[in-house]
Each structure stands twice: as structure tokens, then as C-alpha cells.
Amino acid sequence: IDGHVFRVDPIELSGYGGNATASATWDLSSGVQAVNVSFDNLDLHPQLASSVSGTGSVSLRNWDTESAQGHARLRLRAHEVSHGIPLDGTVEVNLADGRLEVNASRLAGTGFELDVSGFVSQALSLRYRARIDELDELDLLPEGLPVLGGVQIEGLVEGPMGAPRATAQVRSESFSASGIPLELDADLVWAGSRIRLDELALRNDSGGSLTRAGDYDGASSVLSLQGRGANFTAPGIPELDASVRSLELTLEGPLGQLQGQASAALGEIRFRGVPLPAATLDLETSAGEARMTILDASDRPWASVRADTTSPYRAEAKLELDALPVGALLRAYSDDA
After folding, report:
1. If you ran DSSP here, which 8-state letter would residue 225 be given?
2. Within the chain, which residues score under 70 in pLDDT?
3. What's the farthest any 2 CA atoms get from each other in the chain?
4. Within 10 A of 62 (CB to CB), how many other CB atoms are there?
5. Phi then psi for 332, rounded to 5 degrees?
6. Cα–Cα distance between 328 and 61 in angstroms, integer?
7. How far apart are CA 250 and CA 227, in angstroms?
8. Residues sharing a CB contact under 8 Å with residue 95, sequence separation 6 or more, in sequence order
9. CA 258 – CA 246 distance, rounded (Å)
10. Segment (H or E) for 332
């Protein structure tokens, strides 16, 4: 204590891989309080794989937080690790009139870049933009998901602190799924427990397209999805080449009890190089089971499958051999042998 000034000399602290110092003063006559801090190499959340250094100061009068003014400058440095999202960059934070302004431009990591700017108070408004060069190099996606390429994402997080709303626009011209190159456009809105997909559009270089829209309520685990497509190749089945001329899809209900329908008009179909009849595929799911029927051009079924979608899993299949080129299929197998 020096006259009417109460002072706390620098306090040294250590932890989280680094150290920090803090000092404070309180002018008893004017009622002004001030706090200064500096810190070095403090580890952030393990998922971020970075440490932070910087300085900060804040002053206020008579402990009134509405009168607080301050500034902080943070420097993020990435760790050399094999997991998490390492970040390098600078964050500027200003406090005035009860509002915290944030400016984090060009936060960079291996294969991506992130910009965030806006303010936080009783409500928040943060605009962000991200560029990801290679999705598979980030430790974010489920293991084994067959997607590659880069995306650009931008959006806004805004609204009351207790119930913010977020938007995201996702774009890509170098995206691929199961080895198929695609253009990607998606618009999403998140509010509370609800995620709404306004549009997800995938387009290939031969003019094919697949669009989807719907929403998911995390509180009730209810999904609603509608989709349509045209002129694309059905991927993922070895030795089978099939083009889809058109597709209509609806799916609704709790995740464990989804009900839906799908109808697809198939164009040229080849199995091991053997042409099969052009067909229409109808799929229906309900009450724990899925039923699929494949019809030829005369609406005669040449294949049907019924499968349980809950444990214990069972499946039944029926094939109409007189509707298929059995001889050619047998020769395709015998030629391999």
C-alpha cells in the first residue's frame, strides 16, 4: 500500500506447459482498478495442438464491468505433433463498452487457414472463413471416410450467448468421394439442437448431379431428408458399372427407426462386362426392415431383397434367372477361372 494506492506486485504462476505473471493496482481515491498479465507458452486444448503467448491489460472503475476497457494480443504457435489441429497466428482482442471485439486473421495450420472477426457481449456476432487444402490430413473426419480434396467454408455465428445461431456455406471444386471427382456446394444452418441442410449439391464432370435438403433435431434424434439426382454413376460395388438416370429419395423418423422411399431409373448396367437389362430400382424402409425391388423395362421384377435393419440382422434375396443373360454371366466367371 502506497498512500491511497493498493498495489499487487507481479505474481508468478506456472502450469499448462508455460508460465505467467500478473500485477494489479487499485486507486482508492478514484476507484480505478487495473490488471496487467503476460504469459508464455501456455498449452491450449489438446485438439488444437498449439501454445499461446501474449500480454493483456484491463481497467475499470469501482468494479463496474460495464466501465471496463482493455486490450490483449495473443500469439499462437503450433506444436509438431501427429494429431490435433496445430495453429499459428495472432489474435487481437479489445474490450470497451461491455463488448469484446475479436480479430484473428490468417490463423494457419498444416493445409488450412482460418479467419475470425466480430464481437462478443450479451449477444455475439462472429464471422469466419476457412480454407482446407486436404480434408483427409485433418484429424476431424471419421476414420475410413472415403472423401478427399479441399473445401472453402464461410459463415456467421450470431445471436444471444445462450442460444446462438450458426450458418455455413461450403464450396469445393476439388472434392472427391469414393474416388469420384465432384463439385460440392452446401448451405447449413445450426440453431439449438437443430441442424438444417438448406441444400447439398454434388456435380460431376459429365453433367450428373445429386442434391439433398433436410434437417436433423439432436434433441429427439429425428432426421428428415429429401434428395434427387440425375446422370451419375453408382459407386462402391466391385465389378458392377451402373449409371443412374434419375433418383428420388425421402427419409424421415428417429435414427433407429428411419422410414423412407427411393426410386431410381438405371441406365446401362454391366456386371463383369456383361450387359444387364435396363431397370428401375425401388427401395422402401419401415418397421426395422428394408425392401428393394429391381424391375426391367416391362415392370417385371428380376431381383428382390429384404433385409432387417436392426439386430439380429437377416436378409433374403430372390433372383429371376429367366430375366438375365445367365449364359454370358457364367462365361464371364469361367473365363476368369
Report:
1. E
2. 47, 80-84, 138-145, 178, 234-238, 327-329, 332-337
3. 105
4. 9
5. -60, -40
6. 89
7. 6
8. 58, 68, 69, 70, 71, 101
9. 23
10. helix 326-336
Task: Report how far apart the first and last C-alpha atoms of the chain are (Å, whole number).
Answer: 95
Report the residue count for the chain: 337
Q: How many CA atoms lie within 13 A of 137 on its CB side?
A: 13
Rounded distance, CA 55 to CA 36, Å?
8
Q: Which residue has cell 504457435? A: 77
For residues 116 and 92, is the Cβ–Cβ distance under 8 A? Answer: no
Q: Which set of grid coordinates corresponds to residue 156? A: 456467421
| Cell 469414393, residue located | 178
Q: What's the CA gap between 191 and 323, in Å, rounded?
A: 51
Distance of CA 266 to the CA centre of its chain: 31
For residue 102, the Cα-to-chain-centroid distance in whole angstroms is 23
211 by Cβ neighbours in 10 Å (0-12 / 13-18 / 19+) ranks as middle
If you ran DSSP here, which 8-state letter would residue 84 be given? S
DSSP sequence for 257-314? G-EEEEEEEEEEEEETTEEE--EEEEEEEETTEEEEEEE-TTS-EEEEEEEESSSSP-
The DSSP line for 141-167 is SPTT--EES-EEEEEEEEEETTS-EEE
Taking the C-alpha atoms of residue 290 and residue 294, their distance in angstroms, rounded to an integer, is 14
Collapsing DSSP states into helix, strand and coil, what is residue 53?
A: strand
